[in-house]
UniProtKB/TrEMBL annotation:
Belongs to the RecF family. SUPFAM superfamilies: P-loop containing nucleoside triphosphate hydrolases (SSF52540). Transmembrane segments: none annotated. This is DNA replication and repair protein RecF. ATP binds at residues 30-37. PANTHER family: DNA REPLICATION AND REPAIR PROTEIN RECF (PTHR32182). NCBIfam families: recf. It comes from Microbacterium schleiferi. Residues 3-360 form the RecF/RecN/SMC N-terminal domain. HAMAP family: RecF.
Length: 389
C-alpha cells in the first residue's frame, strides 16, 4: 500500500497543502519547526486516528479553525481508496472512505502505517502507558474490531471509577453498592478480551523483534517482551514486583479474584486498581529490564526493532500489502553503522517516508525523492500545491 496524494486543510501549520507521493522512499527535508513532522503525522493519523505527539486532537487543528481535514488517496495495486477525516477541535471526529461514512476507529481497516519517531524512546524508557499505547495502536491495525472493545472498556472504566469516587466521598462500603458487581462483570468481560489479544500480539512479535534488533544493532542481545498483569498482582508503581509476577489458570477467575482482593483499596482510594489499564509490557535485553539498564543506543535499537517488527507483522497478515513506513527524524540519532543497516531494512518496503533536518544524515539509497519543507512551503519532487498561514 502507498499514499499517492495527501491533502491537508487547517491541519497544524498548514492552511492548505497538497502533496503527491510515489512508491519507494521519499525524504522530507527542512529545519526543525517547518512542518515536516506535521505531514508524517497526518499520514499516520489515517491508520491510527491519533497522534504520536499529543494525546488529544485539538492541537492538530490550526489556530483559528474549528476543524482540520486530512484527505488521502491510497493505492494497493489497481485499487484506489479515497479517505477523508475531519478532526474537530471539539466533539466527535468524522471519517469517510470512498464517500461512505465510517467510525474513525475503523480507519485501521483501510490503511496500515508504521511510524517511528524520537518519542518512541518512551516505549522503552517511559511509563507503562507508552507501552500500552504502542500495543493497542498495533492491535487496532491488526484487528480493527478491537477499537470498539478498547473504547467500551474505557467507558466502563470511567463509569466504574465514577462510582468508586462517589462511594469514597459518601464513605459507602461495598454492601451499599450492588451496581458495582454489574460493572465488575463488564470490566472482566472486556478486559479479558484485551489481555488475551495483547498477549497473542507479543507472542507473534517475539521472532520479528529478535530479528529486527540484531539487524539494527548488529548484535544479538536477546531482546524479550512479556506482559505482567495487574490481575496477577503486578503493580505499575513497583518495578521489581512487576517483573517477577507470573500466574496461570483461568483468566476470568484471576480477574474476579483480584477485584475481590482490591475492593477495599479501590473504595478507599476511589480508583480502578485492576485491569489491562494497569498492565505493563516489560521489555528486556540480556535478561535485564531495558528500562533502567539499557544504554541510549540499545534503547534506540530496541524501540526501532519494535516498530520494524510491527511492520513485518502487518505485512505478513494484511491483504493491503506493505504498511507505509515513516521514519520521523530518526537518522540524526544513529551512528553510521546503524544508519546503513536501518536503510537496508526499510528499503524493502513499498513506500518509505523519511523526515530529516539534514539531508546528508539520510543514507543515499533512501534519497530517491526529496521534498523540501520551509515554513510549510513544499518544493521539489512530490510537491503539488500549498498554502500556509
Amino acid at each position: 500500500m502507498i499514499v499517492e496524494r495527501l491533502s491537508l486543510t487547517d491541519f497544524r501549520n498548514y492552511a492548505r497543502a497538497d502533496l503527491q507521493l510515489s512508491s519507494g522512499p521519499t525524504v522530507l527535508v527542512g529545519s526543525n519547526g517547518q512542518g515536516k513532522t506535521n505531514l508524517a503525522e497526518a499520514v499516520a493519523y489515517l491508520a491510527t486516528a491519533g497522534s504520536h505527539r499529543v494525546s488529544s486532537d485539538a492541537p492538530l487543528v490550526r489556530d483559528g479553525s474549528d476543524f482540520a481535514i486530512v484527505r488521502a488517496t491510497l493505492a494497493h495495486g489497481e485499487r484506489r481508496l479515497n479517505v477523508d477525516v475531519q478532526i474537530n477541535r471539539q466533539g466527535s471526529n468524522r471519517a469517510q472512505v470512498n464517500g461512505t461514512g465510517i467510525r474513525t476507529g475503523e480507519l485501521g481497516r483501510y490503511a496500515h502505517v508504521v511510524l517511528f519517531a524520537p518519542e518512541d524512546l518512551q516505549i522503552v524508557r517511559g511509563d507503562p502507558g507508552a507501552r500500552r499505547r504502542f500495543a493497542d495502536q498495533l492491535l487496532v491495525q491488526r484487528y480493527p474490531r478491537l477499537s470498539a472493545t478498547l473504547a467500551d472498556y474505557d467507558r466502563v472504566l470511567k463509569q466504574r471509577g465514577a462510582l468508586l469516587k462517589s462511594a469514597r466521598a459518601r464513605r459507602l462500603d461495598s454492601d451499599a453498592l450492588p451496581t458495582l458487581d454489574v460493572w465488575d462483570d463488564k470490566l472482566v468481560a472486556l478486559g479479558v478480551e484485551i489481555i488475551r489479544a495483547r498477549e497473542a500480539l507479543v507472542r507473534d512479535l517475539a521472532g520479528p523483534i529478535a530479528d529486527a534488533y540484531a539487524s539494527i544493532a548488529g548484535a544479538d542481545h536477546a531482546p524479550d517482551a512479556r506482559w505482567v498483569l495487574s490481575v496477577d498482582g503486578a503493580d505499575p508503581d513497583d518495578d521489581e514486583r512487576s517483573v517477577d509476577v507470573t500466574e496461570s489458570g483461568d483468566l476470568f477467575e484471576r480477574f474476579r479474584s483480584a477485584l475481590r482482593e482490591k475492593r477495599s483499596a479501590e473504595l478507599e482510594r476511589g480508583v480502578n486498581l485492576v485491569g489491562p489499564h494497569r498492565d505493563d509490557l516489560v521489555l528486556s535485553l540480556r535478561g535485564l529490564p531495558a528500562r533502567g539498564y539499557a544504554s541510549h543506543g540499545e534503547s534506540w535499537s530496541l524501540a526501532l526493532a519494535l516498530r520494524i517488527a510491527s511492520a513485518h507483522l502487518l505485512r505478513a497478515e494484511s491483504q493491503l500489502g506493505d504498511p507505509i513506513v515513516i521514519l520521523d527524524d530518526v537518522f540524526a540519532e544513529l551512528d553510521a553503522g546503524r544508519r546503513v543497516r536501518l536503510a537496508d531494512i526499510v528499503g524493502e518496503f513499498e513506500q518509505v517516508i523519511v523526515t530529516a533536518a539534514v539531508e546528508q544524515d539520510v543514507p543515499a539509497e533512501l534519497r530517491v525523492g526529496t521534498v523540501r519543507v520551509e515554513a510549510g512551503t513544499l518544493s521539489g519532487s512530490g510537491q503539488v500545491d500549498r498554502e500556509v498561514s
